Amino acid sequence: MRIDVLDKASAIGTGLAGECGRRTRTLPPREVVFMEHDPVRRAYVVEDGLVMLHHLFPDGRRQIVDLAGPGELLSWEEGGHACTAETLTFCRITSYELTRVDASPDLQRDLVRRLRRAVRRTQEHVTLLGRKTALERVASLLGRLMDIHGKPAGQGAASIVLPLTRREIADHLGITQETASRSFNELRRRGVIGYKAPSRVRIENVAALALLSGSLRP
Amino acid sequence: MRIDVLDKASAIGTGLAGECGRRTRTLPPREVVFMEHDPVRRAYVVEDGLVMLHHLFPDGRRQIVDLAGPGELLSWEEGGHACTAETLTFCRITSYELTRVDASPDLQRDLVRRLRRAVRRTQEHVTLLGRKTALERVASLLGRLMDIHGKPAGQGAASIVLPLTRREIADHLGITQETASRSFNELRRRGVIGYKAPSRVRIENVAALALLSGSLRP
DNA sequence: CGTCATTTTGAATCGTATCAACTATCGTGG
DNA sequence: CCACGATAGTTGATACGATTCAAAATGACG
Prior knowledge:
2 copies of one chain form a homodimer.
Chain A: H1 2-13, E1 22-27, E2 32-34, E3 42-48, E4 51-56, E5 62-68, E6 73-75, E7 84-87, E8 91-97, H2 98-101, H3 105-131, H4 134-149, E9 151-152, E10 158-161, H5 166-173, H6 177-189, E11 193-195, E12 200-203, H7 206-212
Helix pairs in contact in A: 4-6, 4-7, 5-6
Chain B binds a DNA duplex through helix 6.
């Protein structure tokens, strides 16, 4: 069945390789976009869907360094890729040949804007990892996914489908899957969120969630 | 006395504001370059010295998000500054008016290269905060400061002067000052480093330090 | 409807934080 | 130049949040 999805995707896969080194691809969930250590030849922008950037330690520890949603730059580093990029949902990803980027000031300006946003996003994640509690981390992530993904569900509520497992959430937030699970349940116990299936979360109280995510005045 | 240094610096302070919105300033240690929430008007590159970027939580928690050494981009974010920048040593900092950056492709290319390095640096810090132990964090920081700052001291040894207090090191590494201090002493106990004054560290065994900093195959 | 992966829960343990001295260092003024 | 107070660093005892290990419960999917 995994194979089926892959084949289906390959069919859609080839985008129009039209002008100046731009390429758009559609990928199924759990597909590798590029691998750690690969040379960086293109800049990737997520048009639609959610992609994770992760780094694996030699001893098995894993850090999901960044999540990139629609409009966000996935990677445009110096030297080889420092992380592996993998889709979490069906994705449309546009990439630009780096040699061509230099030639087009307009394109460069656009990518720089996205790159600057990526810096800010990553810096914010640094403050999350450096100084937030487990509960604050989970609340922060839910807030971010809500902004990217969430559909309004009336009365200051919203619903989101989590495309990450508890394990992946943990590896993004610098905690363990058990702690992630306990934090979700704690948020539920407090009435901030609700869910029957672990991946279909309803934010019952958006304001409370924002408060719990730290970095907001109490 | 603090006043004296400031005055001295002000004297050196004004750089040649020559071509196209570039400005170079020399600042004494512990001087604010720009403040959180200030609008971003310039891109800053550290020519010489060490600068920290830090973010303050409303409840007093602090995260030192980044350290920028010679040749490294300090800030060029979207929107207002997310962090305050403060010198740790005497610094020479060049900044470029953003409106002029757009106009000069050469300058833009140069800054983009530095910006891409900043992303990688910050991503590496994410993995440090997400998945490393206190000892690994301190070892990693010493390794980085050695690369920036360190002077060879024979037989695979090096000496560095730490321009950060234990408290600042802790706020950079997502630990407490006590844990930072204990980690330093643990490294000393193991013979990896040595010091009499807390800020004048000698790396006795560079290879062992690299090994302890994690992310290296054992 | 059975199998496998994911999630949850519980209990014990561990690493780091916290709180509280104590010591060392440094800049300052007597 | 030395004594002083202030700041920074170290150390110890205890507490707590998160991890670890184990097992049960739930959910996804053929």
